[in-house]
């Protein structure tokens, strides 16, 4: 018997199968890291995506074929691209020039009216 490590299962079998199926890109597969099933949901500081894989024991001369029973790919939503017209209507605070003379005139008129 021989044991195939989770890292080997990922790099030699699962990663290529996911790319071939069109489920992930090569760049996405490069970010995957094999972890123990108990560590699947543990946050990672390195930004890599954990994949729960256990070691696989096979006969020493056996070929390895991967059969994926269930595949769930979760991606964050794409950022909303704002249209040029939406950007034009919402100016950042302080971006419009202020006519101080007109402002003071309005304040004086309000003072007389009140």
Written description of the protein model:
The protein is an alpha+beta fold and 114 residues long. It contains four helices and four strands. It has a two-stranded antiparallel ribbon with strand order 1-4. Strands 2-3 form a two-stranded parallel sheet. The longest helix has 16 residues, at 6-21. The radius of gyration is 29 Å and the shape is rod-shaped. It starts with a strand and ends with a helix. The mean pLDDT is 80.
Tag the structure with descriptive keywords.
single chain, 114 residues, alpha+beta, two-stranded antiparallel sheet, two-stranded parallel ribbon, 4 helices, 4 strands
Provide a quick synopsis of the model.
By secondary structure, the protein is of the alpha+beta class. It has 4 helices and 4 strands, in the order E-H-H-E-E-E-H-H.
| Main sheet specs | 2 strands, antiparallel
Q: Give the SSE order as H and E letters.
A: EHHEEEHH
The helix fraction, in percent, is 25-40%
The number of E-state strands comes to 4
- The low-pLDDT segments are none
Radius of gyration: 29 Å
Topology (SSEs and partners):
Blueprint: E1 2-4, H1 6-21, H2 26-30, E2 32-35, E3 49-52, E4 56-58, H3 84-89, H4 100-113
Parallel strand pairs: 2-3
Antiparallel strand pairs: 1-4
């Amino acid at each position: 018997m021989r044991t195939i490590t989770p890292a080997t299962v990922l790099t030699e079998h699962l990663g290529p199968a996911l790319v071939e199926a069109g489920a992930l890109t090569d760049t996405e597969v490069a970010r995957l890291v094999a972890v123990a099933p108990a560590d699947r949901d543990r946050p990672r500081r390195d930004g890599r995506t954990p994949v729960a894989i256990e070691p696989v024991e096979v006969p020493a001369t056996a070929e390895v074929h991967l059969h994926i029973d269930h595949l769930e790919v979760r991606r964050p939503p794409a950022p909303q691209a704002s249209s040029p017209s939406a950007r034009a209507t919402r100016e950042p605070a302080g971006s419009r020039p202020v006519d101080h003379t007109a402002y003071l005139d309005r304040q004086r008129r309000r003072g007389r009216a009140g």
